[in-house]
Amino acid sequence: MLCVVDCRCINLERNHGISRYTYEIIRNAPKNIKQHLILLSDKENFDVLAKAFDQEVREIVQIKSPFLSSFENIEIPSILIKIQKRTKEQIAYFSPSFSSPPIVDKRIKKYITIHDLMHLDFYSSLKNKVYYSTLVKYYINTAVYVFTVSNYSKEKIIKYYGNSEKIKVIYPGIDVNTFRKLKDEEIERLKDVYSYLPEKFFLFIGNNKKHKNFSYAYELYKCLKRFYPAHKFVSNVWDNESDKDIIRLEKIDDNLLCFLYNRCEAFLYPSLYEGFGLPPLEAIACGAKVIASKCASLPEVLGEHAIYIDVFKSPEENIFEVIEKLNQPKPEFEVISRYISKYNWQDLSRKIFDFIFS
Hints:
This is Glycosyl transferase group 1. By secondary structure, the protein is of the alpha/beta class.
């Protein structure tokens, strides 16, 4: 059997979300599995993907269709059929997203990933919900297995579509070589590199989408500032250009992110909806205190290693409990490391390919 993996979402310059999920699945695949992988790439990222994996995988195929475009419904089935005829092998098609093209050839099996159902739960108009729901139902019904990233997401999928037997929960991982507790000498050296950062600060990293709840994070910071008057608010999102307490970040790579997690007083993550919740888990892996909403998948993923708030109450109503918990000592880092160890990319990759090649 050969497994064709749709890698068009991989962008190593902005390697987060589905891009990182897909990249880590390929990177951490067992060597004997990589020899049976064919990667689909777009023109833009073909050279980067070839440099990363060309010597390890069976083949990398460049296709014209943009990721999640309508044209992929024609091009990808055609490519899969050609691969099947050329190799005479059974083909498994793995999509790192919910989307998968229509395939009628029974020698080609489909496997998809649903990270969350945010468009049904949170954003869409009734018309879009009907359209999206119909599409996802088709994708689920035509897949051998549906992979998802948390039990919370699994329950949502079952609620809308039933068919629990084919839904498999496999947690994403954390790169503990990148997101780790820095040594004192490393922090002192990096203070010079990132000299524009304040000595004391609270941190928000995310985007301005409604569910990320940036405005709540900022209001919570203003409440915290009464107790931490010297602390600034470091963020890659802002809506008030004149606020001198906000330190604005334009570009963030993993090295800077690790330093921010290590140095912040706390990482604020009052998200209203997550299928998983990788940023607060990365922060915990770096030894940060995390203030997170008690919503969606976050309690499942973060366990006892976060300070939870009710984001349906005002920051003012939460502040005294938050302050009390912030003043408590951090757990031993060995305890955190043991907890974090269950989230690793090797396990994710191995389990996915075990299901596909079984």
